[in-house]
Design goal:
The protein has 341 residues and is mostly helical. The chain is built from 14 helices and two strands, in the order αααααββααααααααα. The longest helix has 36 residues. It is globular, with a radius of gyration of 20 Å.
């Protein structure tokens, strides 16, 4: 076994162990503290207690699973964006993809949810929301790539500046629509736009699972293509790669993941920025090794952020998106300074 594979397996084992540890801590800690024995009895159905079951299966476990899925999806989406754009500062949040998906979902809530008089937790709303997020994210990505192109190539400086402008524009549009909502709906929309999974339930998990089942295997199959994006386009064409086809297929896959994640968690930033860099440091540049590591890093960050937000000011909560912004902003500044040196 070569050194890269050893590093990959070691990273996978360590990250999996850390995630299991955080899952246990998240299940047991909070306003209602559970012992190890109570957790085991509840999960394995040995002398279960109704109060414990309510806390574990209705409140905490759906939230934990959703955090794992959202972090995993955003981490892999960030890796794709950085590979396609050849820019280490690219992130679905910074480039405006999250905001585009979020604005589309807010518009959907604003224009249709009240009109149809459907409950916000109805199966129809929950299952169709990722599709709306996909549409908004793809529109944002299309505008981004259109404006950042120079002589049929992506300009790295233009990409970041255009992404910031798109992020600001769609964010302002979302805020404007949320201000037009009723007071109760506005409060819900504001919490959601800050990035939170406080309202997680099993239906949310059901709604995004098909996207992960369809898209993740496709992305893993395209790991070699992602490696080739490190080369110049003429070299890729010389190797027989249909660059534009591969680029748009991978972009659509990334936007699909982002739309699904944003539909249940709101706008979560910086996971897609930090996870790919750390994965490359741990296991190298090959995407065959780094993609899953990148996803697990995203899950770990999301679990940590949600746990801190849920417990640090309990019984009140701080959105996971805000916690991640506090942790991720200094890292973004560091990368920005490093890129200019």
């Amino acid at each position: 076994m070569d050194k890269e594979k050893k590093r990959t397996y070691l990273s996978l084992y360590i990250l999996s162990g850390l995630i299991i540890l955080v899952i246990f801590i998240s299940l047991s800690k909070g306003e209602y503290i559970l012992s190890f024995q109570e957790l085991v009895r509840s999960i394995f159905r040995y002398q279960p207690n109704s109060d414990t079951d309510l806390v574990v299966f209705e409140f905490r476990l759906p939230r934990i699973i959703l955090a794992i899925l959202v972090g995993f999806g955003l981490g892999i989406a960030g890796s794709i964006m950085q590979s396609i754009t050849k820019n280490g500062l690219a992130d679905p949040g910074i480039l405006g993809i999250n905001s585009g998906a979020g604005a589309a979902i807010v518009a959907y809530m604003f224009f249709f949810q009240g009109l149809l008089n459907i409950n916000k937790n109805s199966l129809w709303i929950i299952l169709t929301t990722p599709l709306i997020g996909l549409l908004g994210g793809f529109i944002a990505a299309f505008i981004l790539f259109l404006l950042a192109k120079e002589r049929e190539r992506l300009d790295s400086q233009k990409l970041i500046l255009t992404g910031i402008a798109i992020n600001s524009g769609f964010g302002s549009l979302s805020m404007y629509m949320s201000l037009k909502m009723k007071a109760q709906d506005f409060e819900m929309a504001t919490v959601w736009l800050n990035g939170s999974i406080y309202n997680a339930n099993w239906l949310f998990i059901l709604s995004i699972l098909p996207w992960f089942i369809l898209i993740i295997p496709l992305i893993i199959r395209k790991a070699y293509s992602l490696d080739l994006f490190q080369l110049q386009e003429p070299v890729m064409i010389g190797l027989g790669v249909k660059v534009e086809n591969e680029k748009w297929l991978l972009l659509l896959s990334a936007v699909g993941l982002i739309g699904a994640c944003v539909s249940v968690s709101g706008s979560i930033g910086f996971i897609g920025l930090m996870a790919p860099h750390m994965a490359r440091l741990l296991v190298g540049l090959k995407h065959r090794n780094s993609l899953i590591v990148c996803g697990l890093l995203g899950s770990f960050f999301m679990l940590i952020a949600d746990f801190i937000g849920r417990t640090i000011v309990a019984p009140a909560e701080i959105s996971a998106g805000i916690i991640l912004s506090i942790l991720g902003a200094p890292y973004f500044v560091y990368l920005l300074v490093k890129a200019r040196v």
